[in-house]
Write a structure and sequence with these properties.
mainly beta, 5-stranded mixed barrel
């Protein structure tokens, strides 16, 4: 389950597929995933139970940088993008 960090109208999404390879199991920051919207606000751009594509922008699992430091976030978050052009559906992105 991921929080949606844009103003497309979705609040909670669930990952159903990580794109980019045969039997790819885990996604990291920057990966494009297929999601299903679990909760959304009324009159938003997306509706509940719609299948969309998204980009992971935050993850709780720490990531090692090249200089040896680690970074991690408080939640797992995604931004909904268009399937063909990979442009974000919302106009604003919230959080780091």
């Amino acid at each position: 389950m991921l929080t949606v960090a844009d103003n497309s109208g979705a609040k909670i999404a669930q990952c159903i597929r990580v794109l980019g390879g045969y039997k790819k199991r885990y996604g990291q920051i920057g990966d494009i995933i297929t999601i299903v919207i679990k909760s959304a606000v009324p009159r938003g751009l997306v509706k509940k139970s719609e299948v969309q594509h998204g980009v992971i922008i935050r993850q709780r699992k720490e990531i090692r940088r090249k200089d040896g430091t680690y970074i991690r976030f408080d939640d797992n978050a995604v931004v909904i993008v268009d399937k063909k052009s990979k442009e974000p559906k919302g106009t604003r992105i919230f959080g780091p």
